[in-house]
Design goal:
CATH class of the largest domain: Mainly Beta
CATH topology of the largest domain: Jelly Rolls
Distance between the termini: 18 Å
CATH architecture of the largest domain: Sandwich
Largest sheet: 9 strands, antiparallel
Radius of gyration: 25 Å
Number of helices: 11
Oligomer: single chain
Strand content: 15-25%
Helix content: 25-40%
Bound molecules: succinic acid, cobalt (II) ion
CATH superfamily of the largest domain: Cupin
Structural class: alpha+beta
Length: 411
């Protein structure tokens, strides 16, 4: 990490105390949501209408300093974008960016977007903990944007539910619930052709704006600013259908019971005079094959759990360089507990659990896995009760060696 200048406005010395891992309970009013409860928020606003919350997190400091963010953008396994709007012309470049490839902070009208900051920094990950009143299965990531005066990504809409949390400096947001979502042609970015803002606010550090998908919005920095976007994905019907059918075919392909993946047959095909013509009987046979595709609700659960717990394609787990052997791992975990790695996605239902894209039967793990998944942590005491079962400790040691869990507490 490059050295941070001590007088930099996004000072990391103050930030550590401000991020609490506490997620508000469903029926407790919280400043995070403007004094209503998560249950009320979900009922009135989630997926329905925008909500501006002043001082959602009073005293918030950016989870990463400017230099730390620039260092992330310089890394190969981090998705970053640089957007400039110099002389009224939009440009978009994809990272990684060496610090000297970015315009200077004194240059106006540029912004750097760093996706998946929660995968790389414990403070960014801790910020997400506050939003776990919504299911993990819907969570996408924490994006951090840095912008200089006048910087932004232009008027646009997202297919995401998003909490836009101002963590440094000021940003002017304009939003509108317009129907016309047509885009400007010929631009490298998705910019609305006819943006019609209906409301406007300047957000200061700690303020937050919740937007459901497809609300038009434009955020312009007023001076140097940083915004955290806590995004929740809303997969489209087409995405779910294509992914499910792909998953089903793969699963059937693996099915060793045989019989399901039979070859196309046409023993009654006559000789043809128009070889390029698609035979109607062939299409009918394919229609017959497709009409026989069946799946159960267990298949759907298995698909949903596996698909939504799949880490993004650029995620690489960091296995410990000098892993503890199982005995030492158990001793350490018995003292300090175990924590899910920032990159791990662990979901469960009544029958199975889904760990980073793979399905496993819950069975005996039903006694402890839901606690680990919900808290992303198991304390030492709880671990000791598990440590009598050598199958469990062997399993957890394997997860530790893969970099999916760490021996120790929450950062
Ligand atoms: C930004 O932080 O600059 C963009 C966030 C958004 O509009 O979704
Ligand atoms: Co947006």
């Amino acid at each position: 990490m490059p050295k941070r200048s001590p007088d930099h406005p996004v000072d990391a010395r103050k930030r550590r105390a401000s991020v609490s891992p506490a997620c508000p309970a469903p029926n407790v009013p919280t400043p995070l949501l403007g004094g209503i409860t998560p249950a009320q928020f979900m009922q009135k606003y989630w997926q329905k209408k925008p909500l501006l919350i002043r001082q959602a997190i009073p005293g918030i400091e950016a989870p990463l300093s400017r230099d730390e963010l620039f260092a992330l953008a310089d890394s190969d396994d981090v998705e970053s974008r640089l957007i400039t709007h110099f002389r009224r012309r939009w440009t978009l470049e994809h990272g990684p960016f060496a610090p000297d490839e970015l315009p200077t902070p004194k240059t106006r009208q540029w912004t750097l977007l760093v996706q998946g900051a929660d995968l790389h920094d414990d403070h960014a990950r801790a910020l997400l903990e506050r939003f776990r009143f919504a299911p993990d299965a819907r969570l996408d990531d924490l994006m951090i944007s840095y912008a200089t005066d006048g910087g932004g990504v232009g008027p646009h809409f997202d297919s995401y539910d998003v909490f836009l949390l101002q963590v440094h400096g000021k940003r002017r947001w304009r939003i509108g619930a317009q129907r016309d979502l047509s885009l400007e042609e010929g631009l490298p970015l998705k910019i609305l052709a006819n943006f019609e803002p209906e409301e406007e606010w300047v957000l200061e550090p700690g303020d937050m704006l919740y937007l459901p998908p497809h609300i038009a919005h434009d955020g312009v920095a007023e001076g140097e600013c940083m915004t955290c976007s806590i995004g929740f994905r809303s997969p489209s019907t087409n995405e779910l259908t294509s992914q499910f059918l792909y998953w089903l075919a793969e699963r059937r392909g693996d099915d060793s019971s045989g019989g399901k993946n039979t070859l196309y047959r046409d023993p009654d095909q006559p000789a043809v005079t128009h070889p390029a013509k698609l035979p109607p009987a062939l299409v009918e046979r394919v229609a017959g094959v497709l009409a026989k595709v069946r799946w159960s609700s267990a298949d759907v659960s298995a698909f949903v759990g596996s698909y939504l717990s799949e880490p993004k394609s650029n995620v690489v787990f960091d296995a410990p360089e000098k892993p503890l052997d199982e005995r030492r791992f158990v001793a350490q975990a018995s003292k300090k507990g175990i924590t899910l790695d920032r990159k791990t996605i662990l979901l469960y239902d009544s029958r199975s659990y889904y760990l980073n894209g793979e399905q496993y039967l819950l069975k005996e793990a039903g006694k402890w896995l839901p606690v680990l998944a919900d808290n992303r942590f198991l304390d030492g005491k709880r671990f000791v009760t598990l440590s009598h079962d050598s199958c469990v400790t062997a399993l957890l040691h394997e997860w530790y060696r893969a970099g999916w869990i760490r021996a120790g507490g929450l950062a």
